[in-house]
Amino acid sequence: MTTEAFIYDAIRTPRGKGKHSGALHEVKPVSLLSGLLQALQQRNNLDTELVDDIVMGCVTPVGDQGADIAKTAALAAGWADDVAGVTLNRFCASGAEAVNLAAMKVRSGWEHLVVAGGIESMSRVPMGSDGGAWAMDPRTALDTDFVPQGIGADLIATLNGFSREDVDRFALHSQQKAAAAWQRGAFANSIVPVRDQNGLPILEHDELVRPDTSIAGLAALAPAFEFIGDLGFDQVTRTRYPQVEKIRHLHTAGNSSGIVDGAAALLLGSEAIGTRLGLQPRARVLATAVVGTDPTIMLTGPAPATRKALKLAGLSVDDIDLFEVNEAFASVVMHFQRKLGVPDEKVNVNGGAIAMGHPLGATGAMLIGTLLDELEARQLRRGLVTLCVGGGMGIATVIERV
Amino acid sequence: MKNAIQIEKDSDNIVHLILDNPNGSANVMDADFQASLAHTVQQLQEQDFAGIIVRSAKKTFFAGGDLNSLYRVGKAEAGALFEQCESLKANLRWLETRGKPVVACINGAALGGGWELALACHQRIVIDDRTIKLGLPEVTLGLLPGGGGCVRLPRLLGIQTSLPYLLEGKQFSPKKALDKGLVHQLAANEAEMLEAARTFILANPACQQPWDVKGYRMPGGTPASPKLAQVLMAAPAMLKQKTRGCLPAPEAILATVVEGAQVNFDTATRIESRYFVELATGQIAKNMIGTFWSGLNAIKAGASLPDAELAKGITEPVGKVAVLGAGMMGAGIAYACAMKGCEVVLKDVSLEAAEHGKAYTEKSLRKRVAKGRSTEEKAAQILQRIHPTEDVRDLAGCGLVIEAVFEKRELKAQVTRETEAQIGADTIFASNTSTLPITGLAQASARPPNFIGLHFFSPAEKMPLVEIICGEQTSDETLARAFNFVLQIGKTPIIVNDSRGFFTSRVFGTYTNEGIAMLGEGVSPAAIENGAALAGFPVGPLAVSDEVSLILMGKIRSQTIADLQVNGETLSAHPADAIIDRMLEEGRAGKLAGGGFYDYPEDGPKHLWPGLGARFGNASTQPSLEDIKDRLLFIMAIESVRCLQENILRSVRDANIGSIFGIGYPPWTGGVLQFINQYGVRAFCQRAEALAEQYGERFTPPAMLVEYAEADRRFSD
Q1: Percentages helix, strand, coil for chain B, rounded to the nearest 5?
Q2: Scanning A382, B49, B155, B500, which has its CA 20 to 30 A from the CA of B708?
Q3: Looking at residue A116, what is its pLDDT?
Q4: CATH 1.10.1040.50 in chain B, residues?
């Protein structure tokens, strides 16, 4: 019988606006992550020598985030020298991939206690600063019909007939749900405020949420991807979507995920290690999945990833009580719901990245924590986290409370 | 090896490398040149000298690559071509890194390889003559500058500034070159140029290229710099918008430049050679060289004439032209002729109508002046050459008459008779009909040997092609004179035999009909238009039908049916007919009528008429993009084979050039018949049979095609 992988704890930093004026811009990425590791250690009274590995997602692992920040942060946090650390990059799914990989490590029986999560300081290391052949090498971009994600989001909306009002309304709901969740303390158990070396608080709540968002305010925002679409990217999609005469550019800064700084960490382990350390398991990881789909539309991976993970878990869509579908763009979640017939009341019940932001490498891990908190709060059993991923990939994680 | 570079040393110890191709009138990068260059470098290695002057013994400096041999080089010779490229560039590199000043004295055109040779020199001096053309036109023939142009130009100007020269093959004058920092000095004449070179060498005994100086930084930054990275991320998409993925050369150039900018000079050179070899041995460069170089040159040399010598013997240009009918075509033709120096009598039924036709030129010239493309003075000269009139007597003294009245037989006949009464016995009478057979129109003429078709394309002042149609009685001399006239007004002539729709209109009709037929099958209208664009057509079949007008398309069909009836023949129905009729019933006759397949809102760009889906359905299974593209490319090629089979087409090259210059067949194919060659005649035949099975008998390969496929024969002259 395979060793089961349990989640013992899940914490995250609040998310700061990902720009120079954002609250977390002054915090070095390594400090953001090491602070969180220290909190994890203290909350669980952890003997860090027992941790086999730290797996951290980071999408732009260069500069301040370069050179295996997982291990560097462990050293900076004063964790035992014994602990290994690895940084991985699966674009926007990096945080989820870190958790999935940790679960696999535990299920393999070869490791027993693993920390998983992610980090992204988008104000410090802007998106795209790692270059990469897909976008930056002309031969590769030409051969593979590369377009930026926003074009894909607008293409999904065009193909599905979503209107600007549809996507704006989705965004409004995200804001309203996030504001309500913060108000009732839905994240209280998981948020670890970011403090300076004197213990003074720097940020205690998600900075981006706008409770006063209105439909009129959202409607006034300019389409974010029309300009680059007109530059030529819209036309690149014609080879794969010849039936589209013109892409309607509906996504704006208001109905797309926010650019933020933040980090997340989960503690995963076997049943045996939990017993030994006196830790209470909160959930088990039932299944994980990754898929690849058309890279040009890029953002339709969540539905097939979900199907694949559910099949592995022997479950159906109806067996899942709550879903967290990363709000990279409004159309991504709307398309997912339409594809799988998932009702609104099961999806992103506490808002999502449109309201709170999407710290690329950390988001997947944050969503797993958020989902677990809410399953507990509602006394529900199973949840599924899924994200669209660069390159047309999709990822899913199915968890079940114990 | 025949020596192509003479080496001389002058009293200042300066070595003169005098480029002097022993095989032709211009210097080219052929085998002899390459061997001569290697030999030169070998000799110089053992010598002491103060500097080098590179100059030409020909009228031009250097014409560029040896296209004839590049056309023949195949995939099997890739290794040899790569070595050849590398060794040529190693020799140029030796010259520029020897530490001694090297000066290019550019006395005439330096294009392609010639300009690359100049770029390898430390100092470029050009004679200040605005007719001298400089630049890298390789891309227009499906190639890239493989002699270091993609390495040196970005290092000289920066990536962003250099790309237009490389991607568009833009040519420039010496003055512009000086402004842009592409050359260092202008000289009034050859002597002054040589003196300037000598002065430079003596003043700069040690010389390095900017990119070899320690601490060199690429202007505008490398691809790693964030600002340029932003631009470069969009560059492939911007490029694809233009090439539709059909043209490998611009794509390879962009890749070569960006990849080369990230490595050292010698590595960049190697990257350039690899991309060059890929293009040069690839099919599309063959298509483009074959048609735009060999084919076009042959046409201009008179290869399509029954007697080229006859045309060469007629040296006097047409001084005065008459254009009958000042509608859109007549006005455009008058403008085209006046632009090239002809006096034009523009006649219509009323002076007012004729003046209206002249106003077209005036309006267009005013725009050109406003945009800085012409001067007030030039515009006035052109305009003065157009003489509007309503008086038929003003036609006297014209060397050539072009009739451009409505496409009505009766009217044309009347105009012919009325005109012939005024003009000289040797004046050519040309009809600009686009569909009506010339032999029939010539029945109204008292002098059928002088009667010919000159089919211009709209807008006549811009479109480069004129289709010359020989009637049954048209004389060789009339043809030769008409041919010369077309060259005289700067257009490209193709010659075809008479029939309904001739070559271009007939084949063009298959394109629009095929697109409209697809619509009738329930194919997504956007997919039809996108399919055409992605195959490389400049305008989709639905959009262009709107431009032509569905009324006209309907009229041509009715006229054809009526004409055939006279001979007891019938026109077989095309699936597009019913769709056109339905559109006309719905009052959607095209752009001029306010809407057709497209809507034309006043406040925005045109878009497909949303009503199409409801009228013609949206089939549940849509054809593949490949099928859409192939149907358009194939039907035109098949119809062209029929034209060849029926002796309407007189040469393969005229078919190829005519299809691209006149009716928008994609340039990457090398033309309608070359498309078949490059697809493989047998494979084409099989694919045509498959299309016939699925989409209709019109795709059935004509007998000639089957015959060629069986004999494994290509279409060539």
Answers
A1: 55, 10, 35
A2: B500
A3: 98
A4: 505-647+651-710
CATH 3.40.50.720 positions along chain B are: 308-498
Contact B223 A139 (CB under 8 A): no
pLDDT at B617: 79
Residues of B in contact with A137 (CB under 8 A): 255, 258-259
Residue B263 near chain A (CB below 8 Å): no
3-class DSSP state of B204: coil
ipTM above 0.95, yes or no: no
Which of B233, B234, B534 comes nearest A238 by C-beta? B534
Each residue of B415-430: b (16+ CB within 10 Å) or e? bbeebbebbeeebbbb
Flag whether residue A139 sits within 8 Å of chain B, measured between CB atoms: yes
CATH for the stretch B308-498: 3.40.50.720
Q: What are phi and psi of A191, to 5 degrees?
A: -75, 125
Q: Which of B223, B244, B526 sits opposite A244 (nearest CB)?
A: B526
Cross-strand pairs, A213: none
Name the helix (H) or strand (E) containing B1: none
Q: What residues are paired with B347 via a beta bridge? A: B324, B389
How many angstroms separate the CA of residue B219 from the nearest CA in chain A? 19
Domain boundaries for CATH 3.90.226.10 within chain B: 5-281
| Residue B187 phi, psi (nearest 5) | -130, 150
Residue A318's SS3 state is: helix
Catalytic residue numbers of A, as ranges: 92, 358, 388
Q: What is the pLDDT of residue B480?
A: 96
For residue B464, which phi and psi values (nearest 5 degrees)?
-80, -10
Are B526 and A128 a contacting pair at CB < 8 A? no
Q: Which CATH architecture has domain B505-647+651-710?
A: Orthogonal Bundle (1.10)
Q: Which residue numbers in chain B have pLDDT < 70? A: none
Residue that has been written with the tokens 């570079």 in this structure? B5
Inter-chain CB proximity A138 and B232 less than 8 Å: yes
pLDDT (0 to 100) of residue B224: 87
Task: Pick the range with the lowest mean pLDDT from A180-184, A205-209, B327-331, B561-565.
Answer: B561-565
